Amino acid sequence: MRKNSIKNTRINMEVQRELSEIIRTEVKDPGLGNAMVTVVSVEVTPDLKYCKAYISVLGSEEAAQNALLALNRAVGFVRKELARRVNLRNTPELKFIPDQSIEYGVHMSRLIDDVTAGMKTEDGENGAETGEDSWDDDWDQE
Q1: Contact indicator for 68, 57 with CB cutoff of 8 Å
Q2: How far apart are alpha carbons 51 and 53 in whole angstroms?
Q3: Which domains does the chain have, with CATH numbers?
Q4: How far apart are the C-alpha atoms of 52 and 98, rounded to whole Å?
C-alpha cells in the first residue's frame, strides 16, 4: 500500500475520526481539564505500525503542554480503544505531535492586516482624502 493511496487516505480519516471521539468522550485525565483538543490530521504509515496524530489545543501554551502530557500518559488506553473501534490488521503505535498551524495562520493573518492598515493610512496622506487616486496622476503625466 502506497502512502498516498485511497486505502491509506480512508484509514487516516477513520483513525482521525475515532481518535477525536475517544479523546473527547473517553479520556478522563485531569491534565486535559476543560481544554478543547482537536485532532487536526493523522498520518498512518502504510504498514499500519505507526501513527502520527497532530493535535491542536485551544487555550494558552500551558494548557496545550498539559493536554499533550495527559494524552501521552493515556496513550495505552487510547490505543486499546482504537483497536476495539477500528478493525485493522495492526493497531498503530500512537505519537501525539502538537500542531501550530492554526496559531501560525492567525499570526500571519494579523501581519497581513497590519500591512494593509498601514497601506490605507499611507494612501490617505497621498491624496485619497480629496477623492483623487494617485494612479490617476501617473496616467496624466504620461
Answers
A1: yes
A2: 6
A3: 6-99 (3.30.300.20), 105-141 (no CATH)
A4: 10
User: How many CB atoms sit inside 10 A of residue 66's CB?
Assistant: 19
CA distances from 5 to 11, 12, 46, 76, 141 (A): 10, 11, 9, 28, 59
Cα four-point dihedral sign 80, 24, 21, 39: negative
d(CA 97, CA 49): 17
CA distance to 24, 51, 99, per residue, from 44 (Å): 20, 4, 16
Taken in order 83, 88, 89, 92, is the CA torsion positive or negative?
Answer: negative
Distance CA 22, CA 37 (A): 11
The alpha carbon of residue 77 and the mean position of all alpha carbons in its chain are separated, in whole angstroms, by: 23
Distance of alpha carbon 33 from its chain centroid, rounded? 20
Output the pLDDT for position 1: 62
User: What is the model's pLDDT at position 127?
Assistant: 47
Positions of the chain with pLDDT lower than 50, given as ranges: 127-129
| Cell numbers that stand for 114 in this block | 497590519
